[in-house]
């Protein structure tokens, strides 16, 4: 089986077992979905794949893809900027007062 097409709700999934330019000789299940401009290599194709086995895996992959898109984006600093931030002075600690300051020194007895 090298091709599978099915509907799930209002979406049509077209799946093809094809190789990838990055991994020639290895077949992947590539899926396209109506309303999407990209196609995705969901997982590797196996010799015993049937429509009954592939369809739930495609739907699970697409559900995870939608869940991933719904999560807020995480922006990480460039590695060089993280080093600068780690070496920055801690501004959360209050400044040290001068000796004799009643707020800092205990009362003299």
Can you describe this structure?
The protein is an alpha+beta fold. The protein is built from 2 helices and 4 strands. The protein has a 4-stranded antiparallel beta sheet, with helices on one face. The longest helix is centred in the middle third of the chain and has 20 residues, at 51-70. The radius of gyration is 29 Å and the shape is elongated. The N and C termini lie far apart (93 Å).
Q: What is the helix/strand order?
A: EEEEHH
* Mean pLDDT reading: 83
Question: What assembly state would you assign to the polypeptide chains in this entry?
Answer: single chain
Report Rg.
Answer: 29 Å
> So what's the overall shape?
elongated
Stretches where pLDDT is under 50 for at least 5 consecutive residues are none
Distance between the termini: 93 Å
Strand residues, percent: 25-35%
Major beta sheet summary? 4 strands, antiparallel
Structural class: alpha+beta
Please tally the helical runs, counting DSSP H or I stretches of 4 or more residues.
2
Strand order of the largest sheet: 1-2-3-4
Fraction of residues in helix = 25-40%
How many distinct beta strands? 4
């Amino acid at each position: 089986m090298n091709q599978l097409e099915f509907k799930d709700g209002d979406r049509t999934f077209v799946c093809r077992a094809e190789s990838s330019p990055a991994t020639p000789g290895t077949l992947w299940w590539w899926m396209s979905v109506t309303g999407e401009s990209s196609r995705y290599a969901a997982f590797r194709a196996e010799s015993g794949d049937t429509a009954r086995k592939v369809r739930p895996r495609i739907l699970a992959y697409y559900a995870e893809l939608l869940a991933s898109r719904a999560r807020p984006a995480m922006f990480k600093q460039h590695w060089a900027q993280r080093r600068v931030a780690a070496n920055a002075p801690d501004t959360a600690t209050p400044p040290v007062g001068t000796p004799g300051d009643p707020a800092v020194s205990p009362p003299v007895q």
